[in-house]
Every structure is written in C-alpha cells, then in structure tokens.
C-alpha cells in the first residue's frame, strides 16, 4: 500500500510539473524566455515590461516578476508578487526566503505572534504539495476507493472480501482526510482578503475620509487584512492589530 501511494504521489507531481510547463506553451514561452534573458543582462525595466505582458498564473512567472520589481526598487510590488508565487507554490523554500528577507528589509517591521505546534503542523501538511499535486492524488485515491468497494461487492472469496473491506476502509479514511486538506488549500488559495501596500507611505484614517484624523501610517510592502469598503476607502487591519481606513488605490490584493 505504501509503495502504491508513493507511486501516486510521484505521478501527480509529474502531472503538476507538466501542467506548469504547458502554461508557458507557445507565445508566452517565447516572451517569458526573452524576459529572462533581459533580466540576466540586468535590463530589469525591459524584463518587467515583458513579464507583465504575460497574462497567466504561474509561480515561476510571479517569482521572476517579483525579483525584477525588487531590482528596480519597488519593494511593495516585489512583496506582492513573491506572495502570489507562494500561494501558487506553497512550501517553496526560495520564495519563502526572499519573502522573509523583504519583510525584514522594508520600513515597517511588525512583531507577529508565533503559531503553536498544532497550527505549524497543519500548515506544513496543507502546504506540503502544490494544489495540482494534491488534487491529482485525491482523484487517484477516490478512483482506487471506488474500485476497492466494487471488489468487495462482487467478490465471493470471503478471505479476499475481508482484505478488500479493510483496504476500502483505509482508503476511505485517507481519501476523506486528503479531500479535507485539499479543501483547506482551495479556501486558502481563493481567499482574497489580504493585500500589500504598493505606495511608499499609506495613512490610515479614523473614518473613510482623508479629512478625518490619521491614526497611524504604514509603508510599502506591508501586508494587511481587508475589511469593509466604503467608496474609495477600505478598512484594514495590520498583523499587529492596528486598524483604520485607507485609500484603496494604495493597496493591491495578493
């Protein structure tokens, strides 16, 4: 059983890599490669123009775009695109390292609450594989469970039926757990209540108007959680717990 699951994981990972490669098929691949060459030649503005002309969701594209933004001095947009790259490929060590570096590099350094052991373990599990890989494994397990269940129904050999029943129960438990984790990942991926400050300085007001008192100021690259929207203003909350109303144009959703 262990070997079978390992083969399924390897197959799903291969499919995930194939899907990523197919995303760059044709014209986008040519543009992407030209942008990479320009980046290697330190022509960062020209590389950015090409990266931004590619309209697909891909972690490598987001990663390279973030690096180019950092090289051109746009810390906020670098944080934004590294964050998007990490959403598309959770657990990637290079992306996480660069994102942590930028968060330490930017003007605002906020103290964050260290998650507990259980939270860390759950976060590790749901981010162990890409969403494509987990979906592939879940699909294969579902099919295996279905076939095992059919085997129980049509088998007349009692010993074989008993073994198939035990295997089916195990597969049902594992499949249910994997579907739960995949659902958590989909929810995490689709969540759009976080944004990055892309303006150099962002004032937060007491009310949705710049005519009211400024309660605090944060800077480019700071991540916020989005709340209610009123006109051109959105209520935001920082990791530290501070909250206020800011101009929506100074933020971009992750």
TrEMBL record:
SUPFAM superfamilies: TPR-like (SSF48452)
SMART domains found in the cross-reference section: TPR
TM segment ranges: 136-156, 168-186
Signal peptide: none
Pfam families for the chain: TPR_2
Tagged with keyword Chaperone: no
Coiled-coil parts of chain: none
Keyword Transmembrane helix part of the UniProt annotation: yes
Keywords: Membrane, Repeat, TPR repeat, Transmembrane, Transmembrane helix
Protein name: Uncharacterized protein
């Amino acid at each position: 059983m262990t070997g079978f699951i390992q083969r399924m994981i390897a197959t799903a990972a291969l499919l995930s890599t194939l899907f990523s490669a197919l995303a760059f098929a044709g014209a986008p691949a040519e543009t992407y490669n030209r942008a990479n060459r320009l980046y290697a030649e330190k022509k960062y503005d020209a590389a950015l123009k090409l990266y931004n002309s590619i309209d697909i969701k891909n972690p490598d594209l987001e990663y390279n775009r973030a690096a180019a933004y950092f090289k051109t001095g746009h810390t906020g947009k670098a944080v934004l695109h590294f964050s998007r790259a990490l959403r598309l490929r959770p657990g990637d060590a290079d992306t996480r390292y660069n994102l942590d570096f930028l968060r330490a590099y930017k003007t605002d350094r906020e103290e964050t609450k260290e998650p507990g052991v259980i939270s860390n373990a759950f976060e590790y599990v749901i981010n162990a594989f890409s969403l494509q890989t987990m979906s592939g494994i879940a699909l294969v397990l579902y099919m295996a469970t279905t076939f095992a269940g059919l085997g129980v129904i049509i088998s007349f050999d009692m010993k074989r039926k008993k073994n198939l029943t035990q295997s089916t129960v195990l597969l049902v438990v594992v499949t249910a757990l994997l579907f739960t984790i995949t659902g958590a990942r989909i929810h995490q991926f689709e969540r759009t209540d976080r944004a990055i400050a892309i303006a150099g300085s962002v004032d937060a007001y007491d009310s949705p108007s710049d005519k009211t008192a400024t309660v605090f100021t944060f800077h480019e690259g700071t991540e916020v959680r989005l709340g209610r929207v009123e006109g051109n203003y959105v209520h935001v909350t920082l990791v530290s717990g501070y909250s206020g109303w800011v101009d929506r144009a100074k933020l971009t959703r992750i």
